[in-house]
Design a protein that fits this description.
The complex is a heterotrimer. Chain A is α/β, with parallel strands linked by helices. Chain A has 9 helices and 12 strands. The longest helix of chain A has 16 residues. Helices cover 84% and strands 0% of the residues of chain B. The N and C termini of chain B lie far apart (50 Å). By secondary structure, chain C is an all-alpha fold. Chain C has a domain of 148 residues: Orthogonal Bundle (MetI-like fold). In chain C, helix 2 packs antiparallel against helix 3, helix 2 runs antiparallel to helix 7 and helix 3 packs across helix 5. Classes of the chains: A alpha/beta, B mainly alpha, C mainly alpha. The interface between B and C is large, with 39 and 38 residues.
């Protein structure tokens, strides 16, 4: 388990009677960019949301940086941890949402600073410095005082990325970060994500952007119906798919590749 | 407990007055309100203006001031009014403004397309109102009107301030005599609650019958 | 023909203005206290244990179905008879009005809390905010912006309800009218002026509210 930022073993998640995740195993070493692809309903978003415990899970184990996520073991059973402990763990996992979810009542700077002052407990001017520098790194130095309503979708998502990464998390989760963007705005966000990857951040990216997957991902994971069907290096996945399901899935994308 | 029974007749008489006032206000107010609502929706612009001024004025003054104004003001102008009539008049004028807005709101919330379709199949104005507009508007007007009814019952207590012996005044008199404040205020609360809760319950039943959307 | 004589009204205009400002002050206080009550009750009803939820439901239904006047009498006349006589007539009224408004505000806040988008709360979770921090930095600020119009309308209603304070001799605007009439009996002039004062104030508040909405309210 050492050196691995995320370790998922036999993950099972049920929603009512339906099993969304049916035994998922995944290990992510430090600095790796894992891109998760698959048809809708395959459970990829749910997998991500389990890692930072936005979703509970019923079976298996998730460890982030050696710590069991969301529960403690008590005689082989999982006992849910109190909210404050879970909150602390979430601080080390950054998430970027499909619908950005910026706090509308705060400026861009305010959005990034909130976690730094209240969770990381930084003094205000240090938080402001760090927030400003991250907003500069995503190319929004002139939008510090803008409110989300005044920003384009691409700009909002870049603020959201800054907000997550300013917390200096151990791993960044991207849940279809560009799916809600107009096509011409997708590139600026993917660019930021690519820079982040090159700087060594451990990333799990759920996306439909196959060019990004191929160009930036270290490993591609293909999920379908709640299990990982196939995984491997981008070249192998895209050029020599082993399973029928993956081949069928990739067939939808040949035109854009 | 026997003090409650002893005061029973007085409470009952007060309750009756409260109900009388409430029903009178509701009837008169709804009548005014229907006229007001129709004026707001379909009237020529002078009529609409009058209705608008009427509704917006009532929104800005307390009901109590209106009651006092009529009760003390009419005699000064030479019109003799009893306290209960003054109260009913004032509250009806108020209720009318409320109902006007309720009707206007209910009708306005019906999508434009409904009237267009009705015109398209050749219904005239009265038929459009009768067969298309009002059945649907009713579903939205009814719950709001029921709320108005509850507000009227509560507002009827204000007539006690011009010495009408309604439920509120009766309870005040009894409390003044017997000093059993908690007991009788609780009785009053229970009675008002029972009336209003019943009205709301009837409203829910009616709403279920007439909800089309 | 009625002879208008406006002198008595304008000689006592300062009395009316003092009453008007008292009325506004009472409304502000009642809104503030009622909001505190309403916030606690709304969160209690949304996420508390069953007994709390029932208690809040009882409070809301009870206070909304009885006349405000009854509540005023209960607080002013009733409480002293069971030993609680610290409240004078002014504070009895403020207290009664606060309890009354609290019931309405509970429902307003409850709807507002439910309307706060789940995504924003999840974003708060994702950066590691704990439950109280999420409530304090995300739910409540967003909820207030959502319910601002309803809050404003409640305030206007409360201001009109202050006229009932005259029933227990609190010197607000309506009581001022009564006092002038007792001395001078120029009823028509007095009630015209008092009515106008209420009207103008209500519309001024409504105008201010619209300005506030433009600045703060969120279009959902």
């Amino acid at each position: 388990m050492t050196g691995k930022v995320v370790v998922i073993q036999g993950l099972v998640k049920r929603f009512g009677a339906q099993e969304i995740l049916c035994g998922v195993d995944l290990e992510v070493p430090k600095g790796e960019v894992v891109v998760i692809v698959g048809p809708s309903g395959s459970g990829k978003t749910t997998l991500l949301r389990c890692i930072n415990f936005l979703e509970e899970y019923q079976g298996g184990r998730i460890h982030v940086d050696g710590q069991l996520v969301g529960y403690r073991e008590s005689g082989g059973r999982l006992v849910r941890l109190p909210d404050s402990v879970i909150a602390g763990m979430r601080a080390d996992v950054g998430m970027v949402f499909q619908s950005f979810n910026l706090f509308p009542h705060m400026t861009a700077l305010g959005n990034v600073m909130l976690g730094l002052t209240r969770v990381r407990k930084l003094p205000p001017h240090e938080a402001e410095e760090r927030a400003t520098s991250w907003l500069e790194r995503v190319g929004l130095e002139d939008k510090l005082q803008a409110y989300p309503a005044q920003l384009s979708g691409g700009q909002q998502q870049r603020v959201a990325i800054a907000r997550a990464v300013a917390m200096e998390p151990k791993v960044m989760l991207f849940d279809e970060a560009t799916s809600a963007l107009d096509p011409e705005l997708v590139g600026e966000v993917l660019g930021v994500m690519e820079n982040l990857a090159h700087s060594g951040m451990t990333m799990l990216v759920v996306t439909h952007e196959m060019r990004f997957a191929r160009g930036v991902g270290h490993r591609i994971v293909f999920m379908d119906k709640g299990v990982i069907v196939e995984q491997g290096a981008p070249r192998q996945i895209f050029e020599q798919p082993q399973s029928e399901r993956l081949t069928a899935f990739l067939g939808h994308f040949t035109k854009t590749m | 407990m026997d003090v409650v029974i002893a005061s029973g007749p007085l409470i009952l008489r007060g309750l009756l007055v409260t109900l009388e006032v409430s029903v009178a206000v509701l009837l008169l107010g709804t009548l005014i309100g229907v006229m007001g609502g129709l004026s707001l929706l379909y009237g020529a612009w002078p009529l609409r203006l009058i209705a608008r001024v009427y509704v917006d004025t009532m929104r800005g003054i307390p009901q109590l001031v209106l009651i006092f104004a009529i009760f003390y003001g009419f005699p000064a102008l030479g019109l003799q009014v009893s306290a209960i009539v003054a109260g009913i008049l004032a509250l009806s004028v108020f209720c009318g403004a409320h109902v006007s807005e309720v009707i206007r709101g209910g009708v306005d919330s019906i999508p434009r397309g409904q009237m267009d379709a009705a015109q398209g199949i050749g219904l005239n104005f009265a038929q459009r109102l009768r067969y298309v507009m009002f059945p649907q508007a009713l579903g939205r007007i009814l719950p709001a009107w029921v709320n108005t009814a509850v507000e009227v019952v509560k507002a009827s207590s204000l007539v006690s301030l011009v010495s009408v012996v309604d439920l509120m005044m009766a309870i005040q008199q009894i409390v003044g005599r017997t000093r059993e404040a908690l007991l009788f205020y609780a009785v009053a609360a229970l009675l008002y609650f029972a009336i209003n809760y019943t009205i709301s319950a009837i409203g829910v039943r009616l709403e279920k019958r007439y909800a089309y959307t | 023909m009625y002879q208008f004589n406006w002198r008595p009204v304008f000689d006592n205009f300062d009395l009316l203005l003092k009453g008007l400002s008292l009325g506004i002050g009472i409304a502000v206080l009642a809104l503030a206290i009622g909001s505190l009550l309403g916030l606690v009750a709304a969160f209690g009803r949304a996420s508390g244990p069953r007994p709390i939820r029932l208690l809040v439901a009882g409070y809301v239904e009870g206070a909304r179905n009885i006349p405000l006047l009854l509540l005023i009498y209960f607080v002013y006349f009733g409480l002293p008879l069971i030993g609680i006589s610290v409240l004078d007539n002014l504070w009895s009224f403020v207290f009664a009005l606060a309890i009354y408004s609290g019931a309405y505000l509970t429902e307003i806040f409850r709807a507002g809390i439910e309307a706060v988008s789940k995504g924003h709360i999840e974003a708060g979770k994702a950066i590691g905010l704990n439950r109280w921090q999420r409530i304090r930095f995300v739910t409540i600020p967003l909820m207030f912006r959502i319910v601002l119009p309803s809050l404003g309308n409640t305030f206007i209603s409360l201001f009109k309800d202050t006229s009932l304070a005259s029933a227990i001799a609190v010197p607000e605007l309506t009581y001022g009218a009564i006092r002038i009439n007792v001395n001078t009996w120029r009823v028509i002039e007095v009630y015209l002026v008092v009515g106008l004062l209420y009207l103008v104030t209500c519309y001024a508040i409504a105008g201010g509210l619209r300005l506030l909405e433009r600045r703060f309210a969120m279009i959902r």
